[in-house]
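Action item from last meeting closed. Structure (171 res):
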């Protein structure tokens, strides 16, 4: 028994036993590096998403989605209705026309991204000045994005709806 233990210890010191362990560690590092690169690419897409929202750039947003969008807004915000898969134009008509279109200097700014597999949760805030009253609308959000093959396939928003309702009451 002592001889076997001494032999294993000697082999470990020499590095023979360590070779498979080193290879496993390198493989784990490569997987982690790929995950970091994938998450960075997704967060770059979301940075562009928020710029496109502020610019109301429908073409840029449509390019980020995989052709059919599932865009689910908050139930309490009357201008954004939960949708089934739809063409981007139908979603934008619902969101930008009666909703975001009521604000000057509208923006959505993410302060934190939390990637997890094919999903990224984004925490941030909306703000803009109501055109009819020039009052500032500001509220926090949580957005849940799902990615498929590098493109957005699903978007769901969670936000406090009272500020939106004050700003979107018909003139």
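Sequence:
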């Amino acid at each position: 028994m002592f001889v076997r233990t001494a032999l294993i210890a000697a082999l470990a010191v020499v590095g023979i036993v360590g070779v498979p362990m080193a290879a496993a560690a390198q493989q784990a590092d490569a997987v982690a590096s790929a995950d970091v690169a994938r998450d960075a690419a997704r967060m770059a897409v979301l940075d562009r998403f928020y710029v496109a929202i502020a610019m109301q750039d429908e073409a840029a947003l449509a390019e980020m989605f995989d052709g059919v969008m599932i865009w689910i807004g908050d139930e309490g915000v009357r201008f954004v209705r939960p949708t089934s898969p739809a063409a981007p134009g139908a979603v934008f008509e619902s969101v930008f026309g009666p909703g975001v279109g009521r604000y000057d200097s509208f923006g959505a700014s993410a302060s934190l991204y939390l990637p997890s597999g094919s999903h990224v949760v984004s925490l941030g805030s909306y703000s803009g000045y109501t055109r009819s009253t020039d009052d500032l609308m500001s509220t926090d959000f949580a957005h849940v994005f799902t990615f498929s093959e590098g493109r957005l396939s699903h978007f769901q928003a969670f936000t406090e709806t009272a500020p939106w309702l004050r700003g979107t009451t018909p003139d």
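Note appended to the action item: Helices lie at 2-14, 18-55, 58-64, 88-95, 162-167.
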